Amino acid sequence: MSEIDGSALAHTLIGAAAAIAVTLLVTYAIARRIGRHNVIDVAWGLLFCCAAVAAFAGSAGHGHDLRRWLLLVMTVAWGLRLAVHIGLRSRGHGEDPRYAKLLEGRGELGIVLIVYVLQCGIAFFVALPVMVGSLTTGAVGVLGYVGVLLWLVGLAFEGIGDRQLAAYKADPDRGPVMDRGLWGWTRHPNYFGDACVWVGLFLVAAEHWPGVLTILSPALMVYLLAFGSGKRVLERHMAERPGYRAYMERTSGFFPLPPRR
């Protein structure tokens, strides 16, 4: 059974929490300067990068080195790709209509609480498998490599889905709704990919005790993506587009399935 040094765990959790908080403070300052809060979408992936770096540093001399490196590389690769993609996509645009509607009529304190403090808590909780897993001492085995494989599937879904969507937007003869490629099998290949990434990270961490105790972290992420703020808010906005409701009727909402006729 793997054991974790209590002092190292405390220092790792505190370090990761501080890294996430500082990143969000910088994000808030940038948001105030440029006048739009959707910059938090760019910072979202970076929050996990910072948490992973803090966990890697805090676990030095304690956790299994291969697992530490796997969790660091997997988290940072996912987070950086997401941050760069969203940053390039939102460059030159104003506030996201979803944020404008969400924050309408709220004072500055309300904005800070609902956007930044809430994201801070969610990011810290979701990143727990990375922090705890970095400190476990058991060797990486079959379950860990299954987690890596699932992570690769998730990253591929995100990357391919984003490229297909970009090609659709660049096509002057495109239809009213993107239903090509992966988007014909699931309405949200990027959200499904995110879910695979975080379940994969959990499997790497959960191979040894007490990593399995962090199961609620990927459960929360999957819930938010499939049923919560991710899919629900986006589809409420997209449902106004011509043809989108018919697309919803023939295409799986999350898990990839063959399109219905």
Descriptive overview:
The chain has eleven helices and no strands. The protein has helices at 6-34, 39-58, 65-90, 97-102, 108-126, 128-135, 142-170, 189-206, 216-226, 229-238, 244-250. The mean pLDDT is 92. It is globular and about 55 Å long. The protein has 261 residues and is mostly helical. The protein has one domain.
Task: Give descriptors for this structure.
11 helices, 0% strand, 70% helix, mainly alpha, 261 residues
How is the topology of this model organized?
Blueprint: H1 6-34, H2 39-58, H3 65-90, H4 97-102, H5 108-126, H6 128-135, H7 142-170, H8 189-206, H9 216-226, H10 229-238, H11 244-250
Helix pairs in contact: 1-2, 1-5, 1-6, 2-3, 2-5, 2-6, 3-6, 3-7, 3-8, 6-8, 7-8, 8-9
Largest sheet: none
Poorly predicted parts? none
Count the E strands: 0
Distance between the termini: 51 Å
The helix-and-strand class reads mainly alpha
Helix content: over 70%
* Shape field: globular
Strand coverage percent: under 5%
Query: How many helical elements?
Result: 11
Number of domain modules: 1
Mean pLDDT: 92
Q: What is the N-to-C order of secondary-structure elements (H for helix, E for strand)?
A: HHHHHHHHHHH
- Based on CA atoms alone, the radius of gyration comes out at 19 Å
